[in-house]
Amino acid sequence: MIGLLIAIVSMVIVLSVVVTVHELGHYWAARACGVAIDRFSIGFGAPLVSWRDKRGVEWRIASIPLGGYVRFAGDENAASVPDQNDLDAMKREIADREGDAALKQYFHFKPVWQRAIIAAAGPIANFILAILVFAVMLVTIGDLKTQVIVNQVEPGSAAAAAGFRPADVIVRMDGRTVENYREVQSYVALRAKLPVRFTVQRAQQTLDLTATPVLVEQKDEIAGRVKVGRLGVALTGRGYLEKSSPLMAIPHATVQVWDMLKTIGFYLGRLVTGQLPADQISGIIGIGKTAGAVTQASVEGAPDLKTMIVRTVASQAILIASLSVSIGFMNLLPIPVLDGGHLLLYAYEAVFRRPLRADFQAAGFRAGLALILCFMLFAAWNDLNRYDVFKFIGGLFT
């Protein structure tokens, strides 16, 4: 029960931070464009706490802490982009009620480029959050650097077939420089059944070896049962933490976030094309499990309260940054309901000089919502299966 409570609390904290920053991106972009805002909500459902600021914006913390939203004045259309007939009717209603001057405060009457900026500001805020977190970590803690040395080669493995030997030093993978053993593990894990070209240093020689990781299922303490690419080597090497200067931390963190985005895109591409099994997709349960496990690992073994707090804050910050990149990326997908879907509609409007018809928008919104709900259910099923919940329940009745 304590573990479950830690997981729930950690998940709520992590998700709330990521979602709040995302929605603040929309909020501040809208404010910069002079858009009138009705509400800023952290969570959905009935409000637990609410208040209004001097601009008349209602700020609320709602009862279901699994998301959030910004509602603009006059935003009654589900897709946030009414068609031309709706716009004309809305314009007359607002002009009669508040005067023509009030029209410039409404989101729907802003130039399409401003609406696109507001839609993109949420994901951009997520990326900025991740960059700032990683930059702080690089300055205060540093980045792990190790010489990656092959300690053992498993007989019959992909590494053995490729010609790896103990004492080989891995210096590059597919042309990219290897800086620590974690890079090798994460890179190989996503490339099952794909040839990977390794550059190794063997005594005084530099050799190129090509290995094709095999797809295996293994048990992970945090992720449960996962299917990953496996090379078949044990790696070792003495490491150290290299700190960045405050001047270089932001550029280095930006590169780190960009690499994460490329990795997510690569992984998603392999899933869509069927090269990786879809049962590896994780959802809200996986996020909760990961958040709880990271928190528990930070607390256990801490020699004192100060160390425990520092470890917990650092681990949660890294988790927040990683999740922020993922949510920012997913929100840019061209699916109605998501920010990427809004951007697609604005692109249509920019090209054809008028919004898409309301019935098409409504149909797209319903299809997008159904797709997202199905994805969430599928991810939840995967999480329950990955953590052997079904086996546990079945065992209760045997």
TrEMBL record:
Membrane topology per record: Multi-pass membrane protein
Pfam families associated with the record: PDZ_6, Peptidase_M50
Cofactor: Zn(2+)
Subcellular location: Membrane
PANTHER family, per database record: MEMBRANE METALLOPROTEASE ARASP2, CHLOROPLASTIC-RELATED (PTHR42837:SF2), REGULATOR OF SIGMA-E PROTEASE RSEP (PTHR42837)
GO molecular function: metalloendopeptidase activity
Transmembrane segments: 116-139, 317-338, 363-381
Major location (coarse): membrane
SUPFAM superfamilies the record matches: PDZ domain-like (SSF50156)
Upper taxonomic lineage: Bacteria, Pseudomonadati, Pseudomonadota, Alphaproteobacteria, Caulobacterales
Keywords, in A-Z order: Hydrolase, Membrane, Metalloprotease, Protease, Transmembrane, Transmembrane helix, Zinc
Protein family according to the UniProt entry: Belongs to the peptidase M50B family.
GO cellular component: membrane
Protein name in UniProt: RIP metalloprotease RseP
GO BP of this protein: proteolysis
Alphabetical list of InterPro entries matching this protein: PDZ (IPR001478), PDZ_6 (IPR041489), PDZ_sf (IPR036034), Pept_M50_Zn (IPR004387), Peptidase_M50 (IPR008915)
Domain PDZ residue range list: 148-191
